[in-house]
Amino acid sequence: MQRSDWERTPTDVVVITGVGDMGHAAARRLGPGHLLVIADYSAENLARRTEALQMDGNFVHPVQIDISDRDSVEELAATAADLGSIRALFNTAGLSPIDAPARRIFAVNVLGTAYLLDAFQPHLGPGSAAVFIASMAGTMAELPADVLHAMATLPVDQLLDLPVFDDGLEATAAYGISKRANQVRVQAASIAWGQRGARVNSISPGIIATRDGRDELAGPSGPVMQQLLAASAAKRLGTPDDIAAAVEFLLSPQASFITGTDVLVDGGCIAGVRYGAG
């Protein structure tokens, strides 16, 4: 969309990594009054989402990125900081079990989250906030306390040396472990972020009507997912806007006392499995 001479580019920056359905829904909520820096691995998807958001009247700065690459992530953080004050970061970039084998899932989901947490932390100030997408699959991954502590605190260069990140795992198991790592890594990072006056949380979505969600429902995991939906209180798929609404709240001043936690947005799937009638 062509800009008028009198339109001034905002100096408050919102960064969204991974502009799939959830990222796009959040961008539409968070964009007005901000400069949207959107980042994605796919150049084609990035161009399509940029055009759509610009047509909505947003100021958009697209960046192609591979979050499994430390240099790429650090370049994104530096670019965003050069454009203005980073007010918010929302990371949805990740791989599902239908997308990749265990090795790639760990590289993107585990290292990518760790790289983003490290790279953006120095650029944030009082009032800044971030949300990272985890998953209810992570909530269901039961791991020993010492493993969780290592996942949360080890230097990023040592993370994938943990035996729990076994390249030979089946993709669904690897995904759950990677998302549990996301939850605890965010929780631990909130300490350093708090020293800069910034907050960081994760959201664990349930079964959401995104492309990946629909593909998983149609795949080998479909019967288990149907059982989860049947056990839930909501009895429906979540929508990208359900997640975007939670993200908008967690990034807002109304959530100023919420940091270092995971918010389960699953329509009651986990509650139904744990406490529902047999």
Structure at a glance:
The chain is of the alpha/beta class. The chain has helices at 21-30, 43-55, 70-83, 102-120, 136-139, 145-153, 156-159, 171-194, 211-217, 222-231, 240-251, 269-275; strands at residues 12-17, 35-40, 59-64, 85-91, 129-133, 199-205, 262-265.
How would you characterize this protein structure?
- The protein has 278 residues and is an alpha/beta fold.
- The chain has one domain (12-208, 239-268): Rossmann fold, CATH 3.40.50.
- The chain contains 12 helices and 7 strands.
- A 7-stranded parallel sheet has the order 3-2-1-4-5-6-7, with helices on both faces.
- The protein is globular and about 60 Å long.
- The protein starts with 11 loop residues before the first strand and ends with a helix.
Name its key features:
278 residues; alpha/beta; Rossmann fold; seven-stranded parallel β-sheet; 12 helices; 15% strand
Topology:
Elements: E1 12-17, H1 21-30, E2 35-40, H2 43-55, E3 59-64, H3 70-83, E4 85-91, H4 102-120, E5 129-133, H5 136-139, H6 145-153, H7 156-159, H8 171-194, E6 199-205, H9 211-217, H10 222-231, H11 240-251, E7 262-265, H12 269-275
Parallel strand pairs: 1-2, 1-4, 2-3, 4-5, 5-6, 6-7
